[in-house]
Amino acid sequence: MTEGLCVPDFHPPWFDPAPPSAEDCVFPRLINRNAETAPNEIFIRFETGECWNWAETKEKSVATAAALQERGVLQGDIIAAWAPNSPALVRAWFGANYLGATLAPINTSFRGRLVEHALTKTGAKILIIHPDLVSRLDGLSLGGIERIILSGPTGEDVASVLPVPVENFDALIGNSEVVELAHVEPWDSPVIIFTSGTTGPSKAVETSYVQQWTTARVTYGYMTASDRILVNLPMFHVGGISAIVAALACGGSVALFEAFDTRRFWDFVRETGSTTCSGFIGALTSFLHKEPAQLIDADNPLRICMLGPLNEEAVAVAERFDFDYVSGFNMTEVSTPLVTEINETTLQSCGRPRTGIECRIVDANDSPVPVGDVGELIIRTDQPWQFFSSYLGDPEATAKAWRNGWFHTGDLLTCDHDGRYYFVDRKKDAIRRRGENISSIEIEIEVSRHPDVREVAAYGVDVPGGDQEVMICVVPNPGVELDPKTLIEFLIPRMAHFMVPRYLRIEKELPKTPTNKIQKTELRREGVTENSWDREAAGIRLKREKLNAY
To answer: pLDDT tens across 82-135, in order?
Structure first.
């Protein structure tokens, strides 16, 4: 086998590598088809218990398209949405797509400059927002936003605190009899997904219908019309979007929840009759594994799920709760290029390249490394439309990612002689925590805003379950005695909850190279030291804010 190159000789049995037709991958056409062939079959069940059949899904989507068109939305426009998984967010997504417009959902945990950056990057004129998030806009630049639509009712007068017109949630309901729907093609963009900003501010990934279809069909293509997928990943995440697309593609159904709740997960599965879910990721699997065993564990409707990483805990969860599993490797920019066999027994494996995908493990000069050595994973495909086309408004980042005709993942992997790939680490200065890629730079910027901080280094420290926690090492200004709790309280309102450091070290100096660069490798190697302050041990536990799913 060629060094650094694993020959693609595998693809999931449910995935047809032939390009799909527009009728098979464009979401409005899929909704129309399912509404015609199975109008009364349930497509989506929301956390509130509200259900839409296929006919209702089409009706509501077209009505929202009419409302958006009345407010000036044209084919090719981008609509920003800042709301949790909910009927309003689904209406906004599909309604925009019926007009040939694109939805840009924003992480509901974002605060401050992260929100400003996202709004500015989209260039959107309309923002659909959950009422409870309006207060976070106070004092921020809204970019090009000219109109705000609330995703649900509110008992407060929020219009008075915003510099643009505000409409209530019924503004998403228009007259479907007068709407002019667009002709949408597979290469058009249904959704823009923000990366987590691993090396700086979030990048806006322009995806296409065919890319989203491919991701869904590779990852969840085992689904049939009789399956229901429990979606507990947010719709601003590729995992949440692709899971819904999987149901669209096969005519199955969705149980849509805001977030993963380990305490009620199995209740949700049984209550909704879900036969699969949007995936068990990292620490979430560990949480389920640690839950006390019960006699009814195997008495559930799950038949097959995605697991990642594929470790002993993940396999144990699958065996205990009696479902099959697959694993793989994916990023927002690509379409699940690596996937395992069903019930793969090689632990830590990300699988093999599926048909049509080439993968290489390379060094800093893009030269292949020997089999078994660690290097960066780079990818290309014989069907380029399966990957993203560009980062919105960022040609420099796009060119850097696509260097030498290959997409550079920024992740370090190895490959064995059987063509199986194994994740090792992130090449980028990023932290991976419970499914979120976190920019160390963004953390450092916010920490540096504290008047008592002279220098800071943010990095990830490994914890059980194949996950990481955020740690910072801080050098205070001369003569200052910095209180860790005070610093954390300063950060909480300024950043997403998952970005707030769990561990904190206070030192007189940071380790540096002769060229004055901070040696984060040394800090990572030291990990959590005896003098490290633990936020959770101090009683400060943070979680995603629960918003009403209107």
So the answer is: 999 999 999 999 999 999 999 999 999 888 888 999 999 999 999 999 999 999
Exposure class string for 192-211: b at 16+ Cβ within 10 A, else e: bbbbbbbbebbbbbbbbbbb
* Burial (CB count <10 Å: 0-12, 13-18, 19+), residue 546: exposed
The DSSP-derived string for 502-514 is SEEEE-SS--B-T
Query: How far apart, in whole angstroms, are the C-alpha atoms of residue 92 and residue 77?
Result: 13
Torsion from C-alpha of 467, 472, 473, 476, nearest 10 degrees? -170
Domain ranges of the chain: 5-10+26-410, 431-534
Q: Which long-range contacts (CB under 8 A, 24 or more apart) does 396-404 make?
A: 397/203, 401/333, 403/366, 404/366
The amino acid at 205? V
Residue 450: is its pLDDT beyond 80? yes
What is the predicted pLDDT for the residue at 196? 64
Mean pLDDT along residues 430-447: 78
For residue 384, whether the previous peptide bond is cis, meaning omega lies within 30 degrees of 0, is no
Cα separations in angstroms, 423 against 318, 329, 380: 21, 9, 18
What is the architecture, at CATH level 2, of domain 5-10+26-410?
3-Layer(aba) Sandwich (3.40)
Third-level CATH fold of 431-534:
GMP Synthetase; Chain A, domain 3 (3.30.300)
Inter-axis angle of helices 54-70 and 87-98, nearest 10: 70
**Rounded average pLDDT over 489-500:** 91
**Within 13 Å and on the Cβ side, how many CA atoms surround 200?**
5
Give the pTM: 0.84
